[in-house]
Specification:
Alpha-Beta Plaits, elongated, 2 domains, alpha/beta, Molybdenum Cofactor Biosythetic Enzyme, Chain A, six-stranded mixed sheet, 281 residues, four-stranded antiparallel sheet
């Protein structure tokens, strides 16, 4: 069984091209390594209705985990939790635990001389209003806490949009929870290997990849073009998810050996040069 995961980025700055969404890219890699399978990556505007629709979609399509980024701050356009609450049929209420986290962060910032007043004004208190049944997650860098709640089988993690804050909060609070969920689901281990092919044309490589997929239907194989020319050496990613790390590595290694053998046959038959040794990650 796989831990199906849905990633949702919230923010108009992404949609209009002002900001590059590096959060989704980073999260996809981290969650895949933890055993999750990314079903979909979406981005919506700062509207509760749009956010709620994506939350409902994640649940309707059988996701186990939903991770949102952005929209947790003190300004009026920060409405991610409002959208989540609406979708899950919850009310937004002032969380004492969240308020305590926010008070402590502003106290520290004031002591460091980074803000002039640590008092919680209405905008700051807004960040402590969470859907009922939500656990606030400490933000070690910023002021807005993250949030964790369950809606049926769906585990929802709401994280800040600032990349440094998102990564720190993920490492401390989300990573161990997703790892535990992945183990409980028996998601297995993801092993990925990169194989230089010695080829510079995907159309020439395509029959070799087709043979690999027929021989190893459970293995993901994808070439990564970088242009044309005699200096180009196409790289193929060979990846597999197994019930255990050793089994996955053995299966990926077998697929890599098969690919290298087919490439060597092509080279001996007058095809491109013999590939160099591959690497694993």
């Amino acid at each position: 069984m796989r831990l199906h995961t849905y990633l949702l980025t919230v923010g108009r700055e992404i949609l209009v091209g002002r900001t590059l969404d590096t959060n989704a890219h980073w999260l996809a890699g981290e969650i895949t390594r933890l055993g999750g399978t990314i079903l979909k990556i979406s981005c919506v505007d700062d509207h509760p209705q749009a956010i709620g629709a994506e939350v409902r979609s994640a649940r309707r399509h059988g996701s186990d985990v939903l991770v949102t980024t952005g929209g947790l701050g003190p300004t009026p356009d920060d409405v991610t939790l409002e959208g989540i609450a609406s979708a899950a049929g919850r009310r937004l209420r002032l969380s004492r635990a969240a308020r305590t986290l926010i008070e402590e962060r502003y106290r520290v910032l004031h002591a460091q001389g980074r803000i002039s007043d640590p008092a919680l004004n209405p905008a700051r208190l807004k960040m402590a209003r969470l859907p009922t049944g939500t656990t606030p997650l400490p933000n070690p860098i910023g002021t807005a806490p993250g949030a964790y709640l369950t809606w049926g089988r769906l585990h929802i993690f709401a994280l800040p949009g600032v990349p440094a804050e998102m990564k720190a909060l993920f490492a401390h609070e989300v990573n161990p929870r997703i790892e535990a969920l992945s183990c409980a689901a028996g998601s297995g281990t993801w092993v990925e290997m990169r194989v230089p092919t010695g080829m510079n044309d995907e159309s020439t490589l395509a029959p070799v990849l087709a043979a690999l997929r027929r021989a190893f239907p459970d293995v993901y194989a994808k070439s990564h073009p970088s242009g044309f020319g005699v200096a180009v050496d196409l790289i193929v990613t060979v990846a597999v998810r197994g019930s255990g790390g050793r089994a996955a590595r053995e299966r990926a290694s077998a697929a890599r050996a098969y690919l290298l053998n087919r490439l060597s046959v092509c080279a001996r038959s007058g095809g491109p040069r013999r590939p160099r040794r591959s690497s694993a990650s």
